[in-house]
């Protein structure tokens, strides 16, 4: 599949159309494979926190005369609940990237709304770790695309930033417009002060199911699909996602997406945004 997709890109002009179709097909197959693998994995992954919650609630009931034990069990229940929430969120994201043509219902999407949604999504987890989240530069910026998919992409980046950072650190989200030959782009950068990613792993983290530390990732409900979804959404919107990271110091994931420009989509412009 991957080899076909690559050869399509270097094909001579004459056979371009056919090869583009081939590329589309392999991409569709790739997504279908992700979905199949995910459904197989997720049912197994869901069992773990559900089983733990059931045992822990029994433990709480048996420890009603020991407040300290109750608190300890409740803390673990909270961790398992977070894990469950993250898994369900991943299911939601995956269903959002299912439609064949993501740009069919593309519209101008306000960057500040995407950012608020992404922050809301991990507010609880950030709160328990006392992680500060701050956003800047988002005012008056609009990207062009499928709202649900864009929310899934940014949500995953912010969620990872929180997941892979120690307590009492900062997660920053900064947006800006960048001039580019093919039309202006909107750049949204998510920066954390977390564990960082080695150069070796940087090349692989966008692959589906790849996790640097499966044990740690699983503890937070990670399935290794998040960045594959982000990459897919970016590419299908004509954008890209890149990473900068320094091990032990933190990471910045940058999402570049086409701006919802006046000339490109005036006809589709949402009345409220004028
Ligand atoms: P997961 O569900 O495991 O978070 P992702 O596809 O979102 O899967 O990420 C793949 C892997 O990349 C993670 O398991 C983690 O090892 C690494 N990773 C992703 N984001 C970050 C980050 N902000 N800081 C450090 N490591 C990260």
From TrEMBL:
Bias type Basic and acidic residues, positions: 262-273
Q: Where is the signal peptide?
A: none
Q: How does it sit in the membrane?
A: Multi-pass membrane protein
Q: Which reaction does it catalyse?
A: ATP + protein L-histidine = ADP + protein N-phospho-L-histidine
Question: Mind listing the UniProt keywords for this protein, alphabetically?
Answer: ATP-binding, Cell membrane, Kinase, Membrane, Nucleotide-binding, Phosphoprotein, Transferase, Transmembrane, Transmembrane helix, Two-component regulatory system
Q: Could you say which EC number(s) this protein's record lists?
A: 2.7.13.3
From the Swiss-Prot or TrEMBL record, state where the protein is found. Cell membrane
Q: From the Swiss-Prot or TrEMBL record, what is one GO molecular function term?
A: ATP binding
Enzyme class, first EC level, given as a word: transferase
User: The Histidine kinase domain covers which part of the protein?
Assistant: 41-261
Q: Which residues form a coiled coil?
A: none
This chain belongs to the protein called Sensor-like histidine kinase SenX3
Q: Which organism is it from?
A: Streptomyces poonensis
The taxonomic lineage of its organism, from the top, reads:
Bacteria, Bacillati, Actinomycetota, Actinomycetes, Kitasatosporales
């Amino acid at each position: 599949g991957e080899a076909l997709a690559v050869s399509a890109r270097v094909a001579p002009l004459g056979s371009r159309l056919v090869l583009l179709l081939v590329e589309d097909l392999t991409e569709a197959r790739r997504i279908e494979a992700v979905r199949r693998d995910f459904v197989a994995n997720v049912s197994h992954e869901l069992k773990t926190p559900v089983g733990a919650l059931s045992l822990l609630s029994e433990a709480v009931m048996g420890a009603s005369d020991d407040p300290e034990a109750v608190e300890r069990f409740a803390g673990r229940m909270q961790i398992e609940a977070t894990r469950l929430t993250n898994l369900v969120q991943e299911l939601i994201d995956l269903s959002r990237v299912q439609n064949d043509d993501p740009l069919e219902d593309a519209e101008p999407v306000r960057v500040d709304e995407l950012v608020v949604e992404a922050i809301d999504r991990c507010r609880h987890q950030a709160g328990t770790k006392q992680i500060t989240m701050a956003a800047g530069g988002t005012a008056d910026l609009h990207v062009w695309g499928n709202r649900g998919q864009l929310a899934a992409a940014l949500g995953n980046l912010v969620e990872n930033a929180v997941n892979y950072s120690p307590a009492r650190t900062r997660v920053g989200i900064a947006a800006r417009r960048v001039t580019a030959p093919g039309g202006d782009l909107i750049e949204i950068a998510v920066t954390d002060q977390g564990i960082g990613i080695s150069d070796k792993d940087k090349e692989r983290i966008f692959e589906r199911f790849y996790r640097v530390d499966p044990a740690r990732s699983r503890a937070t409900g990670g399935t290794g699909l998040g960045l594959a979804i982000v990459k897919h959404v970016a590419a299908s919107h004509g954008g890209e996602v890149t990473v900068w990271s320094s091990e032990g110091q933190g990471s910045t994931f940058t999402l570049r997406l086409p701006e919802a420009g006046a000339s490109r989509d005036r006809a589709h412009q949402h009345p409220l945004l004028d």
